Amino acid sequence: MARTIKISSSVFGSLLMLPAAGIVGGFIFLPVIQSVYYSFFTFKLTRKKLPLIWNNFDNYRQVWETGRLQNAFSITFQFMLMVVAAVFILGLILALLLNRGRTNERLTRSLGLLPWGTPTVITALLWSWMFQGEYGFINFLLLRLGLIAKPISYLVNPSTALAAVAVAAVWRQLPFMFIMLLAGMQGIPGEMYEAAYIDGANRLQTFVHITLPFLRNVIRASILVTIITNFKQFPLFWTMTGGGPMNKTETLAILTYKNAFVNLDFGVGAAVAAAWMVVLVIFSLVYSRMVREAEY
Amino acid sequence: MKREAQKIAGNAAAVIASIILGLFLLFPIYWLLVTSFKVNMEIYRFPPDLIPRTFTLENYREIFSDNSVMQYILNNFIVAFGTTLLTMTASSLAGYSLSRYPSIFGKIVRTSLLSTQMFPIVGLILALYVIFRNMNLINTRFSLIISLSAVTIPFSTILIKGFFDDITRTLEEAAQIDGCSRLRTFAVIILPLSKPGLLAIGLYTFMQAWDDFLFAVTFILTDVKRTLSAGIAMKFLGEVSYDWAMVTTVSIAGVLPMFILIFLFQKHMVAGLTAGAVKG
Amino acid sequence: MKKLSMILLMILIALPLSVFAGAEKEADGAGPVTLTFASWSIQEKGAQDYFTELKNDFEAANPGVTIEYAGYPYGELKKQVLIMANAGQAPDIIQCARSWYPSFVAGGYVAELDSLLGPEYINDVYPEILEDMQVDGKTYGIPWKASPFVLFYNKDLFVEAGLDPEKAPETYEEALEYAEALSSLKDADGNAVYGLGQTTGAVPVSGGAVLSMFFSYGGGIVDDAGNVDVVNEGNRTALETLKAMHEKGYNPDGAKLKDLRNLFAIGRLGMYFDQLWGMTGAYAINPDLRSAVGVTTPLSGNGQPAGSTLEAHLILVSEDSAHKEEAAKFITFATSPAQMEKYYAITPFLLPRQSQVAAAPDYTSDPGIAPVLNYPETIRSVEKHPEMENVFLALTTAAQAVTVGGMSADKALADLEKELKSMLN
Predict the structure, then answer these.
(1) Does the structural domain B62-279 have CATH classification 1.10.3720.10?
(2) Which of A15, C105, C118, C156 is deepest in the core (most CB within 10 A)?
């Protein structure tokens, strides 16, 4: 065994960090810092670059005063809450159902995972088409079931557009949540349940006292992933509604995009993105603190 | 008696719930499939036909008339596998470092990397383009692999760290006494023990990379290197119309390989996640 | 350790600031020239062969010059050009939709064409079109394909509704009467037929359509002095008409042009406003439609002269291009009558230059074109402001507000004026 040069543990540890830190640092951290930096300056996407001038939070003030930022925050949060709640509840139900049955497990599970393999862009198209006002399938279904009296154009109706995009998001993300929860459930030893049944516990009781506590780590992780995914959701909105109707689906991602590439005001776009990052970081910190405290 | 009735009602509710959720998840896929077999005028019929009136393979013939769609799928696989490899390598090293050599530096790196994940991609795409241009990487699949890895590494690192935390240190101590180098210990002893964890982050990364649209559309400019989502947008979501017959057909063609993979690997997926999930 | 991380952090912060610097394009002298052409059309169905041939023909006629197509989806191209130009890698030639043109011009990205193309070329362009393309008397773009928002109508449905298929409406008032008759029809499956389609979807091109409607009612968004003027009689009548079209079920809600084309193709829409080449989308779905389609010029509303924005695909030369001369040559080549004739065989559009029209006898006699040949007189100029695309989006928001939003025209106009003032200053 040839001896290599002896290096200290801390240096070795740092060396191990290097590839990850290099890639993420160079290709995410650096651009982010740069964008945040530009958010404090008047920075237009014009060919002739003007000298950067500190503009006293003008970019932030501008989006705030038009009310677009608040609108976007509110819509993003509504969307996120809607999707996370639906994905979690439906995912839990699905996992419970599939955790019981043992018939044709492989096929049913694979089928349940199909939407996950569908790229978001295709998901967006598929659902815009399902929700189409004149020949969409949803209208056909709801008309048949007598739930609506006349066809609705879901994606252009201000009161349904956000929910319609949320349905598409739930469809795509449900499999991830369900497979995570299912995986968690299968890790619970069967004897736990047997013991509980012998003690006369009913299904609800075993669910509350055994299943949920065992799943809490899974739930915490997968909900956090779902939150961030939906906070950042861009292609679904861009393809399905473009932020319309009447800015009712104008999320933070859409607002960033519009400011940077529609208005060529990169500074304002960066300001929206930066404000959003701050909120999301605080949000996720509070979230993990909350979940942790609930546990112990 | 009451218990019996309750049980029946419970089972009935379970069956109904399964059917509704199953339809919700699967009907849209069925709808894609059926539509891809319809002729154009029938696609827009209302009420819609649940089974094609005139069954046609013309749409498939058309999208496979040149091999661009096959190329998109192939590229998507190349990028997804590349990203998965890079991410697994970088994040298992970093995760191991965080687990065994904790330091303030590591903590700072970890927090700042995780926080910047919250920044919207559209806000940094311009800067990324400039970086790739300076590195002469525009219009390469490698640019996609790097940028996607940058997105997936932080979560993967945290996830895999959990696995390493669970492996007892005595193994490494023993190896060290035997004169095994640290890197070798990691590669030969620790890594094989964390297979489920590697599988979990591999899966997560692969799915993320498979779904990419924004990077591909921005960094790739020729058809031979284009990936699936960008290719579909380029070719079938034109200015003038959405050609639904083509879009549904190419979607089916594009998701089919993924479906086969899911079918083959779902057992491992559950196994990997089972081990991973409890770690959080 | 702490010191090290501080230093690292500072490097990380300092690095990106230099990222935008050093973005100069290497200038090269003689030798082979490669022109990058950023385009969305090159890979669209049906057009691929034409563009390959165009490239080959041009390269054969200009030895030493190579055309390199850079393809992006339609919806991504503007963003892409902005990114590339800011990274110092601007494509030499840019295909541009009408709604982005103001951004590119006001952003300084595109080269002045007057001297590049020469006075003969420029003066050949219809004056109304030239005016709309110019800023301070300088020309930055010439339409490749041009069109106003024409009115398409389905002659078969006209017959079914007891209307004269050879008599197209000339005014909004007439069109609304026709729409009433058309919307009483049902298709083969018993679905209602829409009478008169006007796009109001949340995309910039729909904003152009709404603005055209404003023009046709004598309205507009700026007064003669160039100040924002939205609350006026013409705009109010236009929005009230839109509202009525929504309430009477003549117009599908919030439809994009694509939706209207589909509906028109399957015989569920009697008349609608579109760019001339939009019909290609409808024909792709229903090739049998061809014989039934009638076309006519923009309508006049309330006795005002009909008006429309200029809709166009432009080919622009990048200000940063090192080969502007060659790029201009490509434009001249691509827009020569011979090339235009080939392109025209794939998709209908109107020609922006008088000599092109004179050189194409087949074109002037085409019943799909002839009724709208006098289109330049309807073209109205719009602002060349960097936020113009956003203005178009704001116009669609106003249109949605009075229709699906149930807002009054007055309120919608007041909101719009406030918004446009902040955009256009």
Answers:
(1) yes
(2) C105
